[in-house]
Each structure stands twice: as C-alpha cells, then as structure tokens.
Inverse folding.
C-alpha cells in the first residue's frame, strides 16, 4: 500500500540519518552534572532542527535543571485539533563503557538480521523517537499539499527524563496555557517486534516504601539473648515473606481495590503479541524461570498488573566471618508498580496497615512512604483518537487497523502528569523494540522502524484532523 | 559466717582494685590487628602479676595469633589433685564508642544499687574473672598457713577467646603434657544475681552458615522484569521466615536428634533461679518482649536449648532513596547455638538439606558452612568435684551447698576443647552477672561479686584437695 506519505519518507531517509547522526554525537547525559553543557547543546541542536523543519515557533524553556525544547506549528483552520508530542532529549549514562562494541557517542551503522541498525546511546531512547517527527511532519505536508499541518502540532521535549523528570510537573503547570491540547502523543515507547504493528496503551506508576524494624536497643550477644528475644531480621523475613500470597498476589490491604481490570478486548489483543518467553529469559534478564501472579501471562505481569518488589534488604552483621548477635534493626526497601486507576498516595496507608498487622510483639516498626510517587496512566482504547492512531500505524505497516496489537509498558515516567495537568487523553507512538537495549550497552535503533514511525506520524496528523474532540 | 579466707580477701581488696585497674587500661582487643601490641602487653602484665603473686612458674606461650599466659604453683604433697584454671586476657571491640558513659579503657568506679561497680571493657569478661584468682590463691595460703596451695594450681589464660580461639585447640594439644590436670576450673562465666549463689553447669556450642541465593545474572529493571522473574530477596525472606516453625522450633532436619534432654533435677534447680523477666528485658537487652521455643522458660531458652539466629541479611540496593531493581543476589548469615550432645559437624548437611528443600524454581543457592565450630559442653552435676565447688560457693555466700542453684551459659567458648583434649571434668566459677553488659557499651563488674569470687576460689583449693580423683 504505497502512499504519498511513504513515498516522501522513503525519498528522504538520508535527512533522518543526518539529523540523528548529528544529535547522537552530543552526550546529553542528564544524570551527570559534568554533562550539563552537553544537555544544553542538545536542546540548542533540537531547537535549530525544528526551525529548519519549518516550525514557526521554537523556544528553549529553562527549568531549575536541564532545559526543555518547545515548538508549535499551528493549523490554518480555526478550531483544528491540537496535538502535543512528548519526548526527551537527555540520555542514560553509558557505563559500563567496556561492554560497548562501538563508542556510545559515535553513531555506527550495523547490518542486523532485521535490517540496518544504528548503534549509539539515545539511538531510540529517546532521540530516535523524537527525530522521526522531523521527517514525519514534512511528509504530512508534502503528501497533503499543505503549508501547515492539518492539526496544530506542539512538541515538548524535556531534558531530565532519565533523571526522574524532577521539574517536569512544575513546568507543565507553569506553561499549561501554552501547552493546551486535545491529545498528547507520547513518543518514548515502542512496538512488540519489527513486523508486528502495535501501540502501547498504558504505563505503570510507582510508589516506594522503606521499612525499619527495631528490636533490642543495641545489638545483643546471641549466646545470652538469642532464642529468647525477638530478632528484627526474623521479623523482617517473615514480614517480607508475606508480601505476596501463595498466588503471587500482593497482600497489602486494599492494594487491588482500584485496579482497572483488563478488558476482554485488551487481553485478546495482548495475547496475540508474539512473545518468546525462553528468549526473553535468556536475554537481558538472564533469569532462570518466570514467577509471578497466578492467572496472568508474563506480558500481563510486567505490563498490566501491579507488583511489589523488594529492592533492598539489610540488617545485622554483613562483613567477613560471623558475628554472634541479635541485631537491633532490620531494613527493607520496596517499590510498587501501579496500574490505572491506582493512586500512589494510597500506598502510605496500605503499607502502614500491612506492617502494623504483621509486626510481632516486641518489634517496633517505622514505615517511610515518600509523598509523590508516579501515577499510572492508560489510553482509552475506545476513544476516536485511538482509532486514528491505530489506523495510522496500520497504514505504515500495510495492514488493517484491527491487526494492530496493543502492549503495555511496565516502566514509569511523567506521562501521567501530562494527562493529569493538561487534561488530555494519551496516545503512544514509538518506534522502539524490546531488543533495543535501552539503558544498557549497545543501545540501537532499527532504522526501518524509524521510517515507519515517521510515516505513522505523517498519517496521524491527517487522521487526527477528523476526530471530533470535545470543545475545550 | 566469717572465715579466714574472707577476712584476708576483705583486708586486701585494694590489691585487687589496683591490679584490675592497671590491667583494664591495656586495650587488648584481639579482633583488631592494630591492637596486637596491646594484647601482647596484656599477656606481659598478667605474667608479671602472677610472678608477684608467687607462682614459681610463669611462661608466655606464643601461638600463631595472640600469646597465652601459663602459670603453675605445685602443691607440696605428692599426688595432690591438679586444677587448671582457664580464662582469657583479650577483650571485645568497643564500638559504638559514643554509647559509653566513660572511656572504655579508663576504669571508672560507679556507685550502683547493688554496691560499687567498675566500668571498663573487660571489667568482668574476662579480666575481672581472672584477677580474682590472684587474690584468691593468696587468701587460700594465708587462711591455711601454707606456703603452697593444697592442690597444684595451673592457669592457662589465652589471648584470642573473643576472636573464636582459633589456635587454642592446637595449643592444648601441643602442651597437653604440661596442662595435665584432674579438673578444669573455667572462670569466664557468672552467677544468676548478686545475692544468689549459683554455678554454671554447661555452655552451648556454635556453628555458623552463610547462604547466598542467586536469581538473574545482573540487577534487572523492576519495570521491565519485576513481578515476572524470581526475586532472590523474596526467596531469602521466605527461606528465613521458615527457619523456625510456629512453636519456635528450628526446622532444620535432624536438628534436635542428638539433644540431651534436661533432667528433672536440672529443671528443678534452674527453675528456682530467681529471674525477673521484666527487669531482664529492660536491662541490657532493652528488648520489648520475650520470644522463643514453646514449652521452655527464658532461662532454659538461653541456656539449655539449641537456637538458630539470623545475624545478618543483605542484598540489593541499600543506599538513599530508591532504586527500581530486581537484585541479582541475596545473602544471610546464621549462627546456631548447640547443646550437649549436638555435634557442630552435623550442621553442614542439615543446613544444605534445609536450603535445598526451600529454594524456589529459578533461584540457585550456595551454602557455606565452615568446618569446625564450637562443641557444646556440660558439667557432671553428680561428680565429687562439683560437690566441692558447690560447697565453696556456698561458704562465700553464707549458705548451704544445697542452696546453690545451677544455671547454664548460653554463650560458647573453647571449654569443650579443654574437656576433650585434657580429659578432665569441667567446673565453672565466675563472678559475672547477667546485667554486666559484656560485649556491649558500659561493661561493668560488681566489685562485691569479685570479692566473693576470690573467696570461693580460696575455699575451692582447700575443698578440692579432699576429692578422690581417679588415678591418672
């Protein structure tokens, strides 16, 4: 199914290669203060590229941390829908450097089994995902013969996503009027496999807790007191052993109360996503078995179900040899991944109630659940904007909209803030793959996926113009 | 009941004070290599003090670690019984230093509710217990008008007890001929309370294990893998939560098979030991409740029953904030206190079998149980030497021998080696109290207990001369 959009993209892939190559050479690592000038240079590069693409308004928005880039290209038609693209221009650190096959900031083309790949830090997360929009909007204009897009396209590309977006919510609130939109298009995710058109429909939220159990006032001689007073390490082991029941369900009271169940359609579409569990286990996981909540597939467990994971546990003597003590304290750190419509702020009471109900006599518990957390977010798969997205992706993959599968992203990001502050539905359009090694050495992007991303974006601006968004 | 022994002790307490004060100023911490010269100085000080006391033979015995002190004062009578006193001149580390009310190596006299106390590291464990023998043997000679003791008195005071006596068994074997004796008098324990004459009749043994559980090859992103692969911290919590059953019994297979039950007489004598559980909890334990094996009293739990104590547990992220990982590994250290007739060498198989039976799919376990350990030991409470000890303690407390209660020491030491290598029965004569905070900040000795220890020792040399030991 050729299309003017595809023809334009195919004829201009060199532009995409040149843009991405130049941008990826800027080591915009937001976590490392030494790279702050690079993050600033990355914002400047993007701003210049957006101006060159034709965006009439391009601004760099400072924050107390790294700068964000904002651009706007209004549709000529009064009342045309407004779409806001979200992405980020900062990248993860590169250590361990010795595991990279090519220098992380010298983009290197490699012929892979699924087509040409480009290896570099940020190749897909998230510079590749942002860069395809530069070509996509040009394809949209060329294919439709327009001089401005059929919907008003805004872009907000932040510089601190890999550092937890500490100033993003405040930026959204401060700039809410400028950012007003009918729909948010998040370009920071991917698809299930190279030949499998799919869209992400949700991201998980996050909350964390730290638990301290205290027994005796000081470490005690285990010969004099052991076996006769409560040991906080025993209490912590028992507490954490009970964090999940025999079915792998989290035992916090009320934990599942607000969980929006997967619809039959979602489960059916997720169930069709090809997934090689053995390869997944043997891959980056290097894990020996699956485990988790009974009644759910691995993809559902990591994407669509809330989880509780003990991330750290410590107490007593941890040096060489042995020390015969009943320790005074035990500690644990737990993070919870949340799904719509769980509320991070609920976790404080849930964790405290759970700890209180499971702390034995003679042990005092201290629970710290920081305010905040990350809210989960989900697309409404029945929204007409979702229909436009599915149609756009289907065209880029030469298939029908009902052949586009859905996946869920297990990680957490600032997307819920976008939906919450701006009051707009979320769509996810990304060109990444589970095999792209984001956050790891040898991150790469499959170039044909970027071309499809650009084409899907070109279709999307056309399709969204027909969506009857509610009046703002 | 005045006695010449008591009169002498009472007239010479200043000698004991002066000796102890000088010795306690030497920070003989065997665990810290930086203090090796102090441990050597401690041995030299004791050797000089023993010569000054009158021991005709005093030697410093080197070991591959810290030196031991040996002294011998033969009885004039051919065939007189031979008693070997055991103690140690090294002390525990002092951290956390900020919790000491007085500098740990500046002995400080404090008036307490039960009489004058001396605060210092080693005040009772074990310099106080050894020092009372310097005065005790003088009191014995003065009271009996002898120029040599009624039994041959040997002393062996080692320098590595607080480091697990790693070279002690070899020293005993190498010097077995010199150490030949009819009875061993261990002076490294204590009594039930200031006004309660009692003797220890057993010490527990010790074995230790370190367990590592491994899941994924590297720490994994909890958003991508959490809830779908086994978490070694969850597995460790579940494993350790099952170390004890609902009755507080250790669940290792075969753990109780060789345990010698308490006799009715022992339970009766132990049951008469006054024990203020609330005060015990409020004391050095500063613990909030008792806990332990069902069907046994607190004193039985800490003295007469075997236990398993998790001393340390660690894995994953333990720094500030949170880190969203499924960690690769979890670790735990466990020590087991053993009672007669358990065998430390049995624990390796028991721990391995228990871990193997409780490790979930996808987790690999590595169990390290060092060879060795410490054997438990027990006195024969019907031996005539025990009668002599009970009589001596009774006299020091102005009471009758059948009023002397028995207790059991929950800790572990090289005493089993003494009994095993030297083939002699064990007696325990010590002046410590459960409230002395040994191994903790503000260790102290109650000075009137030391005077009673000296008097009991003086009586003991006289009483033991009458015991018909079997021919060697």
């Amino acid at each position: 199914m050729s299309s003017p959009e595809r023809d334009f993209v195919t004829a201009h892939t060199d532009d995409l290669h040149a843009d991405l190559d130049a941008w990826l050479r800027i080591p915009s690592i937001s976590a490392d203060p030494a790279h702050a000038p690079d993050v600033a240079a990355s914002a400047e590069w993007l701003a210049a590229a957006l101006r060159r693409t034709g965006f009439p308004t391009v601004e760099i928005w400072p924050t107390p941390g790294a700068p964000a880039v904002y651009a706007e290209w209004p549709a000529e038609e009064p009342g045309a829908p407004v779409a806001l693209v979200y992405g980020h221009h900062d990248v993860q650190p590169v250590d361990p450097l010795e595991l990279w096959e090519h220098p992380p900031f010298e983009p290197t083309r490699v012929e892979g089994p699924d087509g040409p790949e480009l290896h570099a830090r940020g190749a897909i997360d998230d510079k590749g995902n942002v860069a395809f929009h530069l070509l996509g909007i040009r394809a949209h204009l060329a294919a439709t013969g327009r001089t401005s897009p059929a919907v008003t396209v805004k872009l907000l590309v932040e510089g601190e996503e890999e550092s937890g977006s500490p100033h993003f919510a405040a930026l959204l609130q401060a700039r809410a009027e400028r950012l007003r939109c009918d729909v948010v298009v998040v370009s920071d995710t991917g698809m299930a496999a190279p030949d499998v058109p799919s869209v992400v429909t949700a991201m998980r939220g996050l909350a964390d807790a730290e638990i301290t159990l205290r027994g005796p006032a000081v470490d005690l001689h285990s010969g004099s007191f052991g076996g006769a007073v409560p040991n906080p390490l025993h209490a912590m082991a028992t507490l954490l052993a009970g964090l999940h029941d025999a079915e792998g369900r989290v035992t916090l009271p009320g934990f599942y109360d607000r969980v929006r169940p997967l619809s039959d359609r979602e489960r059916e579409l997720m169930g069709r996503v090809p997934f090689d569990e053995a390869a997944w286990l043997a891959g980056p996981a290097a894990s020996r078995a699956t485990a988790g909540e009974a009644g759910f597939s691995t993809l559902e467990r990591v994407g669509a179900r809330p989880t509780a994971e003990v991330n750290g546990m410590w107490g007593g003597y941890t040096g060489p040899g042995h020390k015969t003590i009943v320790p005074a304290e035990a500690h644990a750190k737990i993070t919870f991944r949340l799904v719509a419509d769980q509320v991070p702020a609920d976790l404080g009471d849930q964790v405290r109630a759970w700890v209180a109900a499971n702390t034995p006599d003679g042990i005092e518990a201290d629970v710290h659940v920081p305010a905040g957390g990350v809210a989960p977010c989900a697309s409404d798969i029945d929204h007409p904007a979702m229909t436009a997205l599915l149609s756009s992706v289907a065209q880029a993959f030469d298939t029908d909209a009902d052949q586009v599968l859905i996946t869920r992203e297990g990680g957490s990001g600032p997307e819920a803030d976008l939906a919450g502050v701006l009051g707009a539905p979320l769509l996810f359009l990304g060109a990444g793959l589970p095999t792209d090694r984001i956050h790891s050495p040898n991150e790469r992007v499959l170039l044909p996926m970027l071309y499809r991303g650009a084409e899907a974006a070109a279709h999307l601006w056309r399709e969204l113009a027909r969506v009857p968004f509610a009046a703002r």
